[in-house]
Amino acid sequence: MSLIWSKLIVNVGINALTAITGLLNGELIEYTETEELLELAVKEAIEVAKTKGIKLINYEPVAHVKEVCKLTAANKSSMLQDMLNKKKSEIDFINGDIVREGEKLGIQTPVNTVLTNLVKIKEKMNDRI
């Protein structure tokens, strides 16, 4: 379970932000605004995981997500590719999952809520075109 959650947290930090902004993975940490949102989304996910009793593999998950951004700098995340191809994304199973689990545990997840909603709006806009 901890490996799954560690991978989920990487996706929480990268996918929705790239889908919304159109940035490549590495570009997320080049802008103060997206880097801050990445950090906040990941911290919310960490709080949810810890409250659920899940021990994460990475001791510094925020630093790990940023390292993944560097290592995959030129990549378009799968969610960004979904947006570009006007397909439904997996937002409900990534950031949306953090939101739902947070609600169950009484943990507020405002950044993940906003990211989830923005991606869903983009999906609806893609349906109109």
Automatic annotation (TrEMBL):
One of the entry's Gene Ontology molecular-function terms is: 2-dehydropantoate 2-reductase activity
**Keyword NADP: yes or no?**
yes
Which Pfam family, giving just one, matches this sequence? ApbA_C
Give the EC number: 1.1.1.169
Keyword terms of this UniProt record: NADP, Oxidoreductase
Give GO cellular component annotations, separated by semicolons. Answer: cytoplasm
Domain (Ketopantoate reductase C-terminal) ranges: 2-123
Enzymatic class: oxidoreductase
InterPro entries to which the protein is assigned, alphabetical: 6-PGluconate_DH-like_C_sf, 6PGD_dom2, Ketopantoate_reductase, KPA_reductase
Name of the protein: 2-dehydropantoate 2-reductase
Q: Which organism is it from?
A: bioreactor metagenome
The gene from which this protein is expressed is panE_13
